[in-house]
Amino acid sequence: MPASPPAAAPSQPAPSRPTPSRRAAEQRLAARRQQPARPADTPLVWTAAAVALGAVVAPLLAGLPAEAAMAPALVALASWGFAWRRRTNHLAVGWLLAAVALSSAAWSGAAWRLFAVDDLGRSAPRDAEPVCLEAIAVTAPVHYPAAAPTPFRAIPSTDRTVIEVEANRLRDAESWRATSGRCEVTIAGRVEDIAPGDRLTVFGQLRQPHPALNPGERDAAAAERSERRLATVWCASPACVTRRGGGAPRPVSRTLAGVRNSAIQSIDQRLSPRAAPLVRAMLLGDASGLSDEDYDVFRRTGTVHLLVVSGLHVGLVAAAPIALAALGLLPRRSAWALSLVLVTGYVALVGARPPALRAGIVASSICVAALAGRRPISANSLAAAAIVVFAVAPGAWAAAGTRLSFLSAATLLGVAGFAAKRRAAWTPPLERLVRSTRSPRERIARGAAGWAVWGVGATLAVQLVTGPLVASEFHLVSPAAAPLSLCVSPLLMLLIGGGLATLFAEMLNGLWGVFGPLADGAAGVSSLATNALSDAIEFGAASPGAGFWTGGPAPWWVAAWTGWVALAAASGAYWPRAAGAVWRLGLALVAAAFVPTLWEAATASDELRCSFIAVGHGSSTLIETPGGGAVLVDAGALTAPERVADVIARALWARGVHRLDAVVLTHPDTDHYNAVPGLLERMPIRAVLTTTLMFPSWDDPQDASGPAELSRRLATAGIPVRSVQLGDRWRVGRAEFEVLHPDDIGVVGSDNANSLVLGIEHAGRRVLLPGDLESPGIELLLAQEPYDCDVLLAPHHGSRRSDPAGFAAWCRPEQVVVSSGEPRNAAGLSYMAAGARVWSTHQVGLVTTSISRGGVRVAAFTP
């Protein structure tokens, strides 16, 4: 038989080529994805916009009772029902959104204005008074370490413990009366053995929170009121707070506090001493281990948001079960359900602050959508988070941090949507073929480069959107944030992932006792990542141009900018054809930012303006001369140097002052100069004028006093120091300055007795600034020819040692300003008896006097 031919090998199927119909379908799908969204696709976005509008207009309803404030909302709701029954859908939607806006306005106003009749804040005086109260602990103690010692701090800092309590009873003479309301109790020292629900007896100093007394100053009273707290209590020792046993049952709070304390202890034990405080802050929201210097490094580099538990932290917690499901270790539905439980528990564990609550709601919505088999809509999820945060804590939106958190999240969401649209665009077949021929190494390299580009681009977008708000609230611009984000993002993921793994392994080790090595390994990874992250941020902070101070735009412009960004996002998503008009509106808004400055320059007046800044027990006076000059006389207070520098700088920026022609220092008391180092960082200073007795005669490296350290810092900054004495005169703008005391050798006495006394004259009127002058220097001054003045800064903060009656008779002032942190009634009565009107910065805040040929006008910051 002839041999049969060998069987042919089976042929491989030829790769399928896209048919014309398939390519057309892909093109149609890509085009559909590129089409603008419909407003109906994101109903919660429009609801959140209505809620935000209501919160903005809430102050307009401030004068109405709660019932009357709800009336417009009820009318709008009734109108919606009528329109809905008539099936006029567009009108019905409008009325419904109006009802939402008016309801949110009423809710915001009620949260701001309505407090119980017996609220503790109604008994709190403006100036601290002794108090004894019984209260229930609401939160566990939070400890803050003492600030590092510095020669510019007049009162040494101490460790502090802060506890939020709910007041029950208030001691009234020999009896107790019922009270209510929450407040923060601050204790000098460390208190450990208090848990939520404990009944406490507190002896301390009760007062209202500090209101803003200067333009641009942080309003602590408003911040506390937004948290529903109208009073604060200061305790001088841990012995002032005693635990009286269990109070109201708070099982959830006590359990969370116990778990949180255990987690903090585990981190402190497993991680290195350098890494533990940062990991506690980034993972658990416990920033008590961080110093002001640590915060300053993160703030200067624009990375302070890393210290706040937010989206990345919650996302990593939610991703852990999903990763187990991807490895086949967990059913997918069980993984999503476990993610939902873990996210809820984690947000509760870190305190459910607005950034964490926002991220938790978004993550929970994704989990619920996955369990329901639906695709999560991120814009609606973020809007839902905003609505829930407003409903739970309407005052949270007053905090800049909450607004920054949502603005950043919305910007990142927009960048992600833009990237998704680019990926969803139809790719030509030739481009697909080129991509398929690339090696795995090239694909990885291109993917990493693309990730870096998108990461930097997202950071720049966030900086662009949130920059005006950051500059206005915190007065910092940080160019280092964009490159640093590229470096620290993977490190942050390792830090948080290692920290979470440490806590999980520690929990398992507590159950079975064999997971200690795993906890140590995870802690080692987290410590290495934390140290690398700290090194990167410290290097960035030390680099030139990492961050710089700025006055920032006006609040009205920031609000307009935020509204324009929202309008631009809406037009891009829903109405692309309106993009041109929106961009023209944006250009007009940018131009409007320069209008106030140009208007002030064009309408410069011939007034000499003196602003007596309210710094508490201290002194700082801004002199603005006709012709655009600016001189600051003294800059200090008994409070922390960074705080008083911030208060003074904000007041100067609010006045449009961004550089100083001179700083005049009257004498070497800390409460008159300790803000100068902070001002050196914030604005240019051309020269420092003072007496020959202000600084040491020679530079002794061993001299750690405040004047010696300030002298070294001025020399390092290259700022000239000029000595002035009795008889010296000079002009700044069209105002004349004259030194009335002391001479070149001074008098035998204290620093106060040798205070520089400065007279300023313009338009035939005079201002007298005598520093802390007291005996025997004051007798030497009063022996001179009387100096009739229109405005006087009371010597030595209105102290009796400054001879108020004799000084008033010598200079015969018409307006007297007392710069003090407490009432000075005795001095005020002496000046009023001499016919002067007395203004106290402690009572009315910043006092501004405007002097011209027409007379003297006086205005106070608070009525």
CATH topology (level 3) name of the domain at 602-860:
Metallo-beta-lactamase, Chain A
Instruction: Count every helix, treating DSSP H or I runs of 4 or more residues as helices.
Output: 28
Q: Which superfamily, in CATH terms, is the homologous superfamily of the domain at 602-860?
A: Ribonuclease Z/Hydroxyacylglutathione hydrolase-like
Largest sheet: 8 strands, mixed
Proportion of β residues? Answer: 15-25%
Helix content: 40-55%
- Radius of gyration (CA) equals 32 Å
Spans of at least 5 consecutive residues whose pLDDT stays below 50 are 1-16
- Large-scale geometry: globular
Protein name: ComEC family competence protein
Membrane topology: Multi-pass membrane protein
Subcellular location: Cell membrane
InterPro entries: ComA-like_MBL, ComEC_N, Competence_DNA_uptake, DUF4131, Metallo-B-lactamas, RibonucZ/Hydroxyglut_hydro
